[in-house]
Amino acid sequence: MPALSATDTLRPAARTEILATRLLFLIVGIGTATWAPLVPSVKARAGLDDAGLGLLLLCLGLGSIAAMPSAGAAAARLGFRPVAAGTVLALCLSLPVLATAADRAALAGALLLFGAGIGALDCIMNLQAVAVERASGRPMMSGFHGLYSLGCIVGALAFSGFLAAGLPDAAATLAAVAAIAALFAAAWPGILARAATAAGPAFALPRGSVLFIGLLCFTVFLTEGSALDWSAVFLIQERGLDPARAALGYAAFAVTMTAGRLAGDRIVARLGRVRIVALGGLAAAAGLALAVLVPAWEGALAGYALVGAGCANIVPVLFTAAGRQTAMPESVAVPAVTTLGYAGVLAGPAAIGFVAHATSLSTAFLVVAALLVGVAASARFLRL
Fold first, then answer.
1. For the whole model, what pTM was predicted?
2. What's the CA angle centered on 274, arms 269 and 275, to 5 degrees?
3. Within the chain, where are the H helices?
4. Partner of 337 for a Cys bridge, out of 38, 43, 199, 322, CB 3.0 to 4.6 A?
5. Of the ranges 123-127, 199-203, 233-237, 374-378, the best mean pLDDT one
């Protein structure tokens, strides 16, 4: 982020609020990365088959979907600080249970609590990001989301390092919990005491421009979910790679997405938000087409890298648009967009599986590419 100059019209506490927003995004990334390596251990401890694990994992999504719509209204009534504190407490209480419990009911309850904490904190951090970006008068959302991506990478590497050093799941998880608590303590002074908007209803169906923005987020998150859940399958099944090299598909996607977001504020300032959505959607669509249409596996890796670069800054721009629209209160609109986007992560990969079963995985990816072209074409209708 560029240094603040004397001409910036930021409040005196702006630097602290910017730092706090970055740390909140980092916390969510680390929390997400801490859960992912625990999944195989949870399956083994609880004696679950694939179907049982799938049902258990639904608890995470249910917890998030249940908490997201009311998080903004709670922040508007109580302020960001108590709601954020509650979400971080939920993470710190649930992760140790997920690292040690074998009882299925305990795991389901902990996963519901973890999902609720992640989902609600996701809403709070985006609401704070909208307010801080608005006060700064310059693009900042991409950089904030870049910290989430960085947190996922750092968290995954750190957890893997702990396990490689011989630490058990419980000890590695406690280290992650301690890091989350320390980061939240550092963020606390800059978390907004009160929401910028008046309290809205606890829940409202998205409408008008909010529904439009949410559907675009759904499509982009669906694309991200397809890269996470289906890239390795595609490279093994369609390109004949071994599992170790097949992981390079998501790695290529994650690296370009993280780099694109960390540099995104300057890119958005230079190109403008409308071009970011239009060019990003086209680039991501071209990346999927490249992965599908070029027979060599190297072409698929290049395609996934292009998908990551294209998607990197679309969602941050859409959250800015959610904060600018006037169809719904901000405290309701941002959680609604977050919920629709998260639904894309949950339902999208499953939908790709159904399409792939009826046709082929390549065809399913081309359908997603067509949806991304639609996202690009929709850019001119957004209030950006």
1. 0.80
2. 75
3. 14-35, 39-46, 50-78, 80-100, 104-136, 141-164, 169-187, 208-237, 243-246, 248-262, 264-271, 273-293, 297-311, 314-324, 330-358, 361-378
4. 322
5. 374-378
